[in-house]
Write a structure and sequence with these properties.
By secondary structure, the chain is an alpha+beta fold. The chain has eleven helices and 13 strands. The strands form three sheets. The chain has a five-stranded antiparallel β-sheet with strand order 2-1-5-4-3. A five-stranded mixed β-sheet has the order 7-9-10-12-11, covered by helices on one side.
Amino acid sequence: MLDRSIGEFSRFIVIALGTTILGFSTDNWWLALCAGLAVYLGWLLWQQNQFDRWLANGRRGPAPTSFGVWGDISDDFYRLQRRHRKEKQKLHSMLRRVQDSTSALREGIVALEDEGNLAWWNPAAGQMLRLQADDAGQPLVNFVRDPRFVEHMHNRMFGRGRASLEPITLPAPGDDSRILTMEVTRFGQDEALVIVRDVTRLHNLEQMRRDFVANVSHELRTPLTVIAGYLETLQMSGQAPRNWERPLTQMSEQTVRMTGLVNDLLLLARLETSERDTGRDRVSVRQLMEQVAGEARSLSGGRHEITVECIEDCTITGTAGELHSAFANLAFNAVKYSPDGGPIELRWRLDAAGGHFSVKDCGIGIDPVHIPRLTERFYRVDAGRSRESGGTGLGLAIVKHVLLRHGANLTVSSVPGRGSTFTLNFPTHKLTLASSA
């Protein structure tokens, strides 16, 4: 920059000296100097005008050919223009590759901007959500109007309410026979990416499994009732041979166990198929804990010391039977897997996050590797011990589904050989203090 200034100043000095010398030869040096400077100034203004016109036309084509300082400026702009074009071409090429790669995906991808307006989508998303080219710029909720997705969208975009991290499963817009999952991920300033997947096949397979389990479980109830009735009659009559006593006792025990398994399967099927968050019972936590503790003491038969701690009573809004099932399953598991004489604590506490019902035992404990899978159907940490205790392997699966229906969750902390603590965490909007109720 300094070299250009020196060069232009030197050029100005040469023109001034040349016109002055020419003026001395004609005895009008000042007139010649003014004329020379005027010509030089007009030449600079003309170059500036050419450059301004090139800028006004959008810098199309190369910069105008100039000399002096404007020539240097034109050269710099031309070099910047070429560099900008190369970077622009590189970005366009990269964008085309990204669009081509996403177009090949079976999952739908929707880019949102300006607080949820459509910016771009790949063909799979356009086909699943029935989007047209002229839909760009409109809010996505205009096309996916399911209230659950609208709430999920607002929670994820604007942080309203309880923002769930789980994808939303809902029918496809305009086609109830197709089932989609939609997951919203926010990034940048008021921008988001929506991943859309077609899970119709998985949904149908899951529905078939539920129907099969429910139907088979229902059909098994009648023969089990008949078998149990005849076994009870034989045992009560006293007419059976003595060598039949042990087989009849074992058959009765297994019939009772199978009946419990069928009942648990039917309960699970009902929990999975019925709508969530429909219960409106006001369940007193203190009364529920006392009832569950009494049942656990009956199951224990005096072998364990079961205590109840409920400092601040409140009510839970939900389904009374389901809540009883969840509370009782944890208490019964503590009785089954705790050694004789061991203490079992049932505790309820409140804090800013909500209400927490915990069952603490001093049993065999659980290795941390098993904890993530405890709520799976028929998952057993120790299969032999579970069968001896009479468990069906469905208790914690039932607890999980009950909690899902009540907007709650389960946490487990355990140390092998030192016992376990299972905690049901209920959100504050499900709770009402007993005094205010």
